[in-house]
Amino acid sequence: AEPGRAIARFTDLGYGPRVRAAVDPGVGDQILTPELVRAAIAVLSAWRGEWPERPAGVVGIGSLTRNNLISSFVNEIATVGRRPVLGIVPHRGTPRLERSNSALRLKAVFAAYELPTELRDLLAGEYQGRPLFLLDDYLDTGWTIATVARRLRLAGAGPIYPLVLGVAG
User: Fold this and answer.
1) pLDDT digit string (tens) for the chain, length 169 residues
2) Beta partners for residue 85, in sequence order
3) Distance CA 44, CA 50 (A)
4) How far is Cα 169 from Cα 162, in angstroms, rounded to an integer?
5) Is 122:115 a contact under the CB 8 Å cutoff?
6) How far apart, in whole angstroms, are the C-alpha atoms of residue 55 and residue 48?
7) Cα angle 77, 64, 26; round to 5
8) Is the Cβ–Cβ distance between 89 and 162 less than 8 Å?
């Protein structure tokens, strides 16, 4: 993936508490708040001058616990940017119950994500070589974004621009 962007670090004073609250497991799965949508738009506006070509579509990374949050994030960004939602890469793994080392985390993430056939077909056809946005709720180790971005690139996508709500730590 190309260098990505986030609305905030979880430890930031500004949007940090709001982003943490949005992904807090105790809160439940909710849609993205209008305030965080506006913040994401501001991040995209500041970032757009760095893209050699405007991303052609939006892809989301699925979640076991926050599908409404991810779907609303993907749909809002696609609507504002007037770009199609190409799909959400579903999470097919099991929840991570404890921290693990990087190699074990990568193994679990690698096994948990596979591109849907419809998305692979789009990347082999109309969107081959085209840049895409890749959206996720938050970044912790970076393995999820790296794994899904690699799968997208191998399927035919061009540059992948990750955007997350927050960065842990």
Assistant:
1) 999 999 999 999 999 999 999 999 888 899 999 999 999 999 999 999 999 999 999 999 999 889 999 999 999 999 999 999 999 999 987 766 556 677 877 788 888 899 999 999 999 999 999 999 999 999 998 999 999 999 999 999 999 999 999 999 7
2) 58
3) 10
4) 18
5) no
6) 9
7) 90
8) no
Taking the C-alpha atoms of residue 154 and residue 122, their distance in angstroms, rounded to an integer, is 13
| 57-61 vs 85-89, strand pairing mode | parallel
Q: How far apart are CA 132 and CA 153, in angstroms?
A: 10
Dihedral angle at the C-alpha atoms of 154, 4, 77, 114, nearest 10 degrees?
A: 30
Residue type, 37: V
| Cα Rg of the chain, angstroms | 15
Q: Which amino acid is at 127?
A: Y
Amino acid identity, position 21 = A
User: Which has the closest alpha carbon to 61: 127, 160, 130?
Assistant: 160
Place of tokens 């807090």: 24
pTM: 0.93
Residue whose C-alpha is closest to residue 52's, from 146, 136, 158, 145: 158
